[in-house]
Amino acid sequence: MNGNVVAGPIPEDLDLRLIRRDTDPLPPDALIKFQAISRAKDPSNNYRWILYEDGRWFMAWHSGDTSDWQTPFDTVLPAEPTAMIAKRDVKKIEKELKNAGFAGQSPYLADPRVEDGTYYVVTARLKDQVHEVIYDAAYPPLVEYLDGIIYEHQP
Description:
It contains three helices and eight strands; from the N terminus they run E-H-E-E-E-E-H-E-E-E-H. The protein is α+β, with helices and mostly antiparallel strands. It has one domain (27-153): Mago nashi protein, CATH 3.30.1560. The longest helix is centred in the middle third of the chain and has 13 residues, at 87-99. It starts with 5 loop residues before the first strand and ends with a helix. 26% of the residues are buried. The model has no long low-confidence stretch (mean pLDDT 93).
């Protein structure tokens, strides 16, 4: 991880967009939830997805309405999967989480040098334990990998 990234507990003065992130519990048979939330006053590129252990992948983009830029998501996840991800790719995602030491990461990682950028929120289940990490403008290899999944699987 970049030497400029600061790790610690979730700050008390958390940005409203992060307070309003998707905080629904990870469904029992889901492996991971990923959220990308712009730090700029434009939520139109915000998106989130949930991947289930059986490969069902649900993904939703923000509608593009910028009138309430502090609400990161104004669309719901679809009722039917956006795509089916091959079991080997689900296992690769799980391996990437383990290799990154995700379960042991601090709940908040920030790069204080970045002025704009993106908030990423990763919630994952490993060995029946759910862990969530907020990456505040931090973009370690795990986040870069997870961020790229939409380009492989969106319709």
